[in-house]
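About this split. The held-out portion is used to measure sequence recovery: a designer receives only the structure tokens and must propose an amino acid at every position. Recovery is the fraction of positions where the proposal matches the reference. Here is one held-out target exactly as it appears in the evaluation file.
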């Protein structure tokens, strides 16, 4: 559950752990402390319930990294929420991986799916009557850089760079 490697803390949660969160051994272990000064990755199944669990994990990680700027914290939570939701809704992924890394004055957030999207999401203005379609626009307005890359396995990684200096 919490292997620590050179690449940081890696958490993989099962569908059962997601459904029972926070009443799981994983949640209890994380409540007692998070390894500090390490990147983190969360691999979760494509369940809507995984989104708030990853927001919780993101908050815990930011606490361990002493990221206190409310603007940066809010942007990171928005990025995780929107990009994970897009991966759940718009791909045929079985799992999604989120990665967090602090690099100097920047917070780097990535969400990687397993592919199968019929189209590449792009920021666009949506009518306010529409229930969907504004997430990437909101993210783009909240971060300093936003991009995507195609992975060799057919998956896609969306990434965002967030300033930690306000």
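Reference sequence for scoring:
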């Amino acid at each position: 559950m919490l292997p620590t490697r050179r690449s940081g803390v890696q958490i993989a949660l099962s569908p059962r752990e997601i459904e029972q969160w926070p009443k799981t051994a994983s949640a209890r272990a994380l409540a007692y402390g998070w390894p500090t000064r390490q990147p983190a990755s969360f691999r979760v199944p494509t369940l809507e319930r995984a989104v708030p669990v990853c927001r919780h994990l993101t908050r815990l990680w930011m606490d361990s990294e002493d990221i206190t700027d409310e603007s940066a914290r809010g942007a990171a939570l928005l990025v995780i929420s929107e990009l994970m939701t897009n991966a759940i809704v718009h791909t045929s992924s079985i799992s999604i991986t989120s990665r967090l890394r602090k690099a100097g004055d920047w917070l780097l957030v990535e969400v990687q799916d397993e592919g199968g999207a019929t189209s590449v999401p792009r920021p666009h203005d949506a009518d306010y009557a529409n229930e969907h379609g504004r997430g990437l626009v909101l993210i783009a307005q909240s971060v300093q850089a936003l991009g995507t890359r195609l992975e060799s396995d057919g998956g896609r990684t969306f990434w965002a760079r967030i300033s930690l200096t306000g």
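Annotator remark: Helices lie at 15-20, 25-31, 50-64, 70-90, 135-142.
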